[in-house]
Structure formats: structure tokens, C-alpha cells
Automatic annotation (TrEMBL):
Residues 39-66 form a coiled coil. Keywords: Coiled coil. This is Small, acid-soluble spore protein N. It comes from the Bacteria. The lineage of its organism: Bacteria, Bacillati, Bacillota, Bacilli, Bacillales. It comes from Heyndrickxia oleronia.
Length: 85
């Protein structure tokens, strides 16, 4: 079932992207000398993860779709938090 495999792989890529994004976000140090570089890295992770979510949404099951929507919401919270600093 290649379709099912692609669906699962797309979802797992989005899941992994969220984990990496969470890792980068949790290591963000606002008073650090390289804060700008950290923000740039975070922005890249946000963009990459958002694209992975969009790709996964195209083939996601209903259960996966709900989780992907949560990922989108989590990304929005991260972006809002960083923008409000």
C-alpha cells in the first residue's frame, strides 16, 4: 500500500519537524549575544515544519489531520510568543 506508506511518512515528517522546532524553541535564550542567530534558526524551523504540515495535510487521515491542526496551532503560539518579546 504505497499510498498508506506515503501518508504515514508525511505525517511522521511533520511530527519530527515539530519535535525539532520544539527543541530549537526551548533552547532560545533571549538575553544571549547570538539571539538574532537563534531567531533566524527558529524562523527556518518554523517555515520548514509548516511546509511539512502542509504536505502531510494533503494525504492525512482524519485523526492525523486533527493532530496536524494542533501542530499548526502550536506553531502560531510559538511565533506569537517570540513576536511579543
Amino acid at each position: 500500500m504505497p499510498y498508506h506508506k506515503n501518508k504515514q511518512q508525511a505525517f511522521q515528517a511533520a511530527q519530527q519537524g515539530m519535535k525539532q522546532l520544539d527543541d530549537v524553541y526551548s533552547q532560545l535564550v533571549r538575553d544571549s549575544a547570538d539571539y538574532g542567530q537563534q531567531l533566524k534558526h527558529l524562523k527556518n524551523e518554523v517555515n520548514e515544519t509548516y511546509q511539512q504540515i502542509e504536505n502531510a495535510m494533503e494525504v492525512a487521515s482524519e485523526t492525523q489531520r486533527q493532530q496536524l491542526e494542533k501542530f499548526r496551532s502550536d506553531i502560531e503560539q510559538i511565533v506569537n510568543d517570540v513576536n511579543n518579546d
